[in-house]
Specification:
This protein is mainly α and 431 residues long. The protein has one domain. The chain is built from 17 helices and no strands. Helix 5 crosses helix 11. The radius of gyration is 21 Å and the shape is globular.
């Protein structure tokens, strides 16, 4: 271990203390939940990065994801022809996100639909749920929802649909935080496509990041909005609520349809937020030009630059060397306002350009970015859960910002765990 591993360890402690400092009720925080959650993360991190047998499992999962993507491209090539040929292959027109990356969302959604129908995913989710509920001393419903978020997105709330209207304020915060702090398997393929040319083992890291972020989301949620009531499903094992389709074909069709809706949703979000941020930046550029001319300065007041300054101390806490910290902070700022898709694209470009001084920087950055912790997702998750439980809309709105902050801290917490155990000799390297 070198000094950066110890900095990451100190960063983990500082993030937990920061979460406690901004808690809405410090005395209600349950130390067991916090320590157990951090302990689970550290145990997972140790196994993933330092135990070769477990590292090889994740690398095999990474290779499996790449193989699945190859199968997905059969449909993409059929529909889009030359537009779907990725860079580096004969006839490629370059990387075109809407034709080469986003269609994989539909394929993975269909695949998940099949795995849920075959009862594979419900079994895995229940396994994680019961472990988290026992170890962290949280309710069965919120642990089930957090476990579901390792594999799916907003639809995870439907697994606890019968309980949503009776959940406590703290439980609802955990539901939203878990959704924002993890990624859905339906978009895993998209991120792999964005990064695999410059980061061959990225799928292994994304899988492990989503796994690590589930307990982190529970911890940060319980720090910021501690439980002060008596959850209905405390000490209870909760079965996932689902409406089973009549056949495997119907399950695949429903999954593909949901994937198509997600595809459109991502396109709409990127069109809206990239455009709106560009518009805001035009105004900030004008203000910056005036200020620089008036005071003979060379400041940039663009949103991503302002946010990079805010995230810079956090990037250092992750164990990122100072020479790379500002770039990683900029990526975190981009994720916060532009979603994780442009942020991962930017990360891939930086790796390709050799912009990072230290090899640990892109690895830790990939963990810090692995979550839906951005403004657009808050609206999606709060709106989606409110639609399922209209009577809790007011409560959900009141915890929305706290959930976003908790999710952001959870992603950073996961990145510190990667920083603690990552070494240049690890099998889980960038390439």
């Amino acid at each position: 271990m070198d000094r950066y591993n110890f900095i990451s360890l100190a960063g983990l402690v500082i993030l937990l203390c920061f979460g406690w400092l901004i808690s809405e009720k410090k005395r209600a925080v349950k130390l067991r939940t916090v320590l157990a959650g951090a302990g689970i993360q550290l145990a997972f991190g140790l196994l993933i990065f330092r135990v070769p047998a477990f590292s090889r499992i994740f690398l095999k999962l990474s290779a499996l994801v790449v193989k699945i993507l190859e199968a997905a491209y059969e449909g993409i090539h059929f529909l889009f022809g030359p537009l779907a040929i990725p860079p580096g292959q004969d006839g490629s027109l370059g990387f075109i996100l809407i034709f080469q990356g986003l269609p994989t969302v539909v394929f993975f959604a269909a695949l998940m639909g099949a795995l849920y129908y075959l009862r594979v995913m419900p079994w895995i989710v229940k396994l994680f749920s019961r472990f988290f509920s026992w170890a962290l001393r949280v309710s069965g419903a919120e642990s089930l929802c957090a476990s579901s978020n390792i594999f799916v997105g907003i639809e995870s709330a439907t697994t606890v649909l019968p309980y949503l209207n009776r959940m406590t304020r703290s439980e609802l915060c955990t539901v939203i935080t878990a959704g924002l702090a993890t990624i859905a398997s339906t978009v895993l393929g998209l991120y792999v496509i964005l990064l695999k040319a410059n980061f061959p083992n990225i799928a292994a890291h994304l899988i492990s990041a989503s796994l690590l972020s589930a307990p982190a989301a529970i911890v940060m949620s319980k720090l910021l909005v501690p439980e002060q009531e008596a959850p209905e499903t405390l000490d209870s094992a909760v079965e996932p609520h689902c409406e089973k389709e009549s056949s495997l074909i119907e399950a695949v069709m429903k999954g593909a349809t949901a994937g198509g809706q997600l595809f459109i949703g991502i396109v709409v979000m990127l069109l809206a937020f990239l455009g709106l941020v560009a518009l805001v930046n035009m105004g900030l550029d004008a203000v910056g030009a005036f200020v620089n001319a008036r005071f003979d300065l060379a400041l940039s007041l663009r949103l991503e630059d302002l946010l990079s300054y805010a995230f810079y101390p956090f990037a250092l806490l992750l164990g990122i060397p100072a020479a790379d910290a500002l770039e990683v902070a900029r990526l975190l700022g981009e994720r916060a306002i532009l979603t994780e898709v442009p942020a991962y694209q930017h990360l891939s470009s930086l790796i390709g350009e050799g912009a990072f001084i230290n090899e640990r920087s892109p690895v830790i950055a990939s963990y810090a970015l692995c979550g839906f912790a951005h403004i657009a997702a808050v609206a999606i998750f709060v709106g989606g859960v409110s639609a399922l439980a209209p009577g809790r809309a007011g409560t959900l709105a009141s915890i929305a910002i706290r959930a976003l902050v908790a999710a952001t801290l959870a992603c950073l917490m996961t990145a510190t765990v990667a920083g603690i155990f990552y070494t240049s000799g690890s099998l889980m390297i960038a390439g």
